[in-house]
Amino acid sequence: MLRRLVTPSLLAAVATVLMVAAPANAAPSAGEVASALNSSNVYVDPAATDVSAGDADLMSQAAENVDTPVYFVVLPDDGTYDSQAQLGSFMADVQSDVGDGSFLVFVGNTTAADSTVLSPGDVAEAEAAAQQMGNVTDASVAFANEAESQADAAASSGVFGMVLLGLLALAVVGGGLFLRSSKKKREAKAARELEEIRKMTTEDVVRLGEDIARLEIDLGTVDEATRTDYTHAMDSYDRAKTELDTIQRPEQVQQVTNALEDGRYYMTATRARMAGDPVPERRAPCFFNPQHGPSVQDVTWAPMGGTQRSVPACRACSSDVLSGAHPDVRMVEVGGHRRPYYDAGPAYAPYAGGYFGGDMMMGMFTGMMIGNMMSGGMMGAGMMGAGMGDMGAGDAGFGDVGGGDGFGDFGGGGFDGGDFGGFGDF
Questions:
Q1: What stretch of H or E contains 340?
Q2: CA distance 318 to 236
Q3: Domain shared by 161 and 108, yes or no
Q4: Tens digits of per-residue pLDDT, 115-125?
Q5: 401/385 Cα distance (integer angstroms)
Q6: CA within 20 to 30 Å of 276's CA: 125, 206, 304, 423, which one?
Q7: Residue 308 domain-assigned (yes or no)
Q8: Is the pTM here over 0.90, yes or no?
Q9: Phi and psi of 191, rounded to 5°?
């Protein structure tokens, strides 16, 4: 369990010890932290060895995936920032160099948050969302997504209030322009994600069609069971093509991959019957690459910087994992970069959902970028955070934001961000 930072009275009791104890690593300057945030929206102190470079990349992507500015800072729990005043002063200097935004800071097993663009209540909601997660990457994604939701809601509420109260026409027009601009950004982002997902899924559809064609089956010479399986494979392939032609939103791709899973199993069954081999068991597709078809066994595997979990794997990928080699992972292009599909972001969760179904995804994709959607729309609100302890959201991390004052006033809330329920060891 992550705990609140110690209270001022306890700090006073150990002040002498803190003053004479020299830190093992030199504390970063505000300029160093600000430079990293301006470059990638993330700063990870070298002494914070529990957060890997891969984790930092995922945190950076989480910040890039939202329109509202968010920044993440990971500092070591070495006593340098044990008091509200110390961290408050330091982050005020950082914020002045970075500019407006919402900041989430990890100090050992504790978080603190503040924002120059959200109200204290809104930033508390964002921090509370982060505290439901089980690791820094999930926490960062949850914070970013909730910060964007709160910013959008505040903008909409503000414009509605101006219209309702009949305020200045110029203010109303300005608010409308802001909303239209924000809407255009979201629409552009959604269109980009849809195009990337459509391209990825098209590759899967084409691959299945090619594999079915390679069967070179003569329906007049095979038995009824083979003919039935082949018909199922073709029907599923046709359904996948039809669904692909009609998708307008990323979540609709789940219907395509569901048909592909069905078709690939029956294609594999047909091939086995034609070769005189046993028909394979109806198992989940290979986790590493669903194009590989049904899995043959479960293997224990961990993503880079993540925890071990049991995943289904085909024969080739099982052999690779068990021998310590790298399996053939399904790679996709996201923002011009190739990455494993399971780290492509929450927008790709429906792609995996069609292949594996909701129950399996809860265990397999925990702690991955694709899994962060499972705490919300696709898998049911709160499932990832369920049973993870008392959040105790309390005050919003660094204290009062105060109408855009940001890190200027740290007298209100201190580090009373609540327990980071179930966050545990990294």
A1: strand 337-340
A2: 27
A3: no
A4: 988 988 888 88
A5: 27
A6: 206
A7: yes
A8: no
A9: -65, -40
